[in-house]
Design brief:
224 residues, 12 strands, DNA-binding, Sig_transdc_resp-reg_receiver, five-stranded parallel sheet, two-component regulatory system, 8 helices, WalR-like, transcription cis-regulatory region binding, Arc Repressor Mutant, subunit A, four-stranded antiparallel sheet
Length: 224
């Protein structure tokens, strides 16, 4: 899952865009102004920055300039209603990787984000994960074992991927819920237990694979 730092002072627009990006598999941290953007950039190290230009306190051009003082690699995409050539040139000189003009369609923004990630070397290439005799394809959300193929839901595939990436380490319950269900007011810890039970069932053909419930803390995937 790729982390997007999304900087937009118009809250209603930001809510729509954030929900749409999360529905397409991105993790979004939204902030309202440039000062917050610099704070979050330093703290969370996002994979990409999607940045409005016209904002109070600190405009997007200034934010990009400050980011590029310490970070030359994280892609930056400007969202802007400015269409003058000099504005576009200024943005690219400050280190922007791309521009998306407002108003825009979410499909266009997603294509631009994926292209920027690919060019930066972070693209969607790492999509297959192996645990025991199973292979997880996180692009198609397929779990294969020999000739057997199971279609997973997006959240099942992402949760299993995180467990595999954290193999032999405890993956905290709070982190799982915050990452994948932060916008779902109906989701509970009991619901997470149900998801874990499903994943255990999917993996049951390989008895070496264990997902252990560390009571009150989280879950750990291990391979005997």
């Amino acid at each position: 899952m790729y982390n997007i730092l999304y900087v937009e002072d118009e809250e209603s627009l930001a809510m729509i865009v954030s929900d749409s990006l999360e529905a397409h598999g991105f993790m979004v941290r939204h902030v309202l102004n440039g000062q917050q953007a610099l704070l979050f950039h330093g703290k969370y190290k996002p994979d990409i920055v999607v940045l409005d230009v016209m904002m109070p306190l600190m405009d997007g051009f200034t934010v990009a300039k400050e980011i590029r003082k310490t970070d030359l690699h994280t892609p930056i995409i400007f969202l802007t209603a400015l269409t003058q050539t000099e504005d576009l040139v200024k943005g690219f000189k400050l280190g922007a990787n791309d521009y998306v003009r407002k108003p825009f369609k979410i499909e266009e923004l997603i294509v631009r984000i994926e292209a920027a990630l690919k060019k930066s070397g972070q693209g969607m290439s790492e999509s297959k994960f192996v645990v025991g005799n199973f292979t997880l394809d996180t692009v198609k959300n397929l779990l294969s074992h020999g000739d057997s193929i199971e279609k997973l839901s997006y959240r099942e595939a992402e949760l299993l991927k995180r467990l595999i990436e954290s193999k032999d380490k405890v993956l905290p319950r709070d982190e799982i819920i915050r990452t994948y269900w932060s916008n779902d007011t109906y989701f509970t810890g009991r619901s997470l237990d149900v998801f874990i039970s499903r994943i255990r069932k999917y993996l049951s053909a390989d008895e070496r694979i264990k997902i252990t419930n560390i009571r009150g803390v989280g879950y750990m995937l291990s391979l005997d």
